[in-house]
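Field log, afternoon session.

UNIT: design team B
ACTIVITY: writing a sequence onto a fixed backbone
BACKBONE:
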C-alpha cells in the first residue's frame, strides 16, 4: 500500500507500537526520529505513546560521483559505518572518504544544535528507545543511528518504519532488538514511491515538531 503522507504513516505505525506498550514489552518509551523525513512520522508515534520526542541526527555518506547513493553513514561520536559491498563495487576504501566523513560530522553537529536549540540530548539509559524513520532503502543510515543509540545503553532498542526494502529489513533485525515495519514490498525502488506526498521536510518543520512535543508534555 501507499501512504498519503508521513503524518498518516506515523499514525498507522503507532498502532503496533501501542500494542507493544499495552503488553508492557516497551515501557517508559522515548522516540528518536531521524531528521528530517523521520520527524513527522516520529511526531505521531510520540503523540500516540505519550512519549518524549527527540532527534537522532545521522548523515548519509554518498558515493563520490553520485551523492544520493548512500554507501555509508555517521551518527553520534562513533566511527562511520560503510556498506562494504558498495565500497568493493566502487573500488573505494574508508580512507578515500575521510574528508566527506568529516564534513558530514560537522553538519551533524550543526543540525543537532539547530534542532535542539542548545539543549542537551535526552537520556537513553534504561529506557525503551524507539528509533523512527520514514522508510529504509539500503538501511545504512538507520544502522549507524542504531549503533549510536546502543552506546547510550537503552533497555530496549526498537526500529520503527512504515516501509522498507526486504534486504534492509532483514539487516535491521540483526541490529535492533525489535523491528516494527508495516510494509516490505518485493518491488522497491525507493522510499518516496510509497508516499503520495513525499515533500522535502525543512528545518523549520523539524524544530516546530520538537517544540510542539515538548509543550504537550
Amino acid at each position: 500500500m501507499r501512504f498519503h503522507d508521513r503524518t498518516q504513516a506515523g499514525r498507522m505505525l503507532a498502532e503496533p507500537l501501542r500494542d507493544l506498550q499495552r503488553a508492557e514489552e516497551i515501557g517508559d518509551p522515548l522516540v528518536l526520529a531521524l531528521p528530517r523525513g523521520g520527524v513527522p512520522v516520529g511526531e505521531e508515534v510520540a503523540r500516540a505513546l505519550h512519549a518524549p520526542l527527540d532527534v537522532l541526527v545521522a548523515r548519509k555518506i554518498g558515493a563520490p560521483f553520485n551523492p544520493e547513493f548512500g554507501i555509508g553513514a555517521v551518527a553520534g561520536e562513533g566511527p562511520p559505518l560503510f556498506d562494504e559491498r558498495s565500497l568493493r563495487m566502487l573500488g573505494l576504501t574508508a580512507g578515500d572518504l575521510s574528508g566527506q566523513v568529516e564534513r558530514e560530522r560537522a553538519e551533524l553537529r550543526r543540525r543537532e544544535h539547530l534542532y535542539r536549540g542548545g539543549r542537551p540530548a535526552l537520556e537513553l539509559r534504561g529506557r525503551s528507545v524507539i528509533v523512527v524513520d520514514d522508510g529504509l532503502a539500503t538501511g545504512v543510515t538507520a544502522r549507524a543511528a542504531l549503533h549510536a543509540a546502543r552506546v547510550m545503553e537503552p533497555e530496549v532498542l526498537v526500529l520503527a518504519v512504515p516501509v522498507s526494502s526486504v534486504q534492509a529489513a532483514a539487516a535491521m533485525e540483526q541490529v535492533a532488538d525489535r523491528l516494527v515495519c508495516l510494509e516490505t514490498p518485493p518491488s522497491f525502488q525507493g522510499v518516496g514511491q510509497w508516499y503520495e506526498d513525499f515533500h522535502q521536510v525543512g528545518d523549520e518543520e523539524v524544530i516546530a515538531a520538537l517544540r510542539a512535543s515538548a509543550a504537550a508534555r
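LOG NOTE: The first strand starts at residue 29 and ends at 33.
NEXT ACTIVITY: expression trials, pending approval
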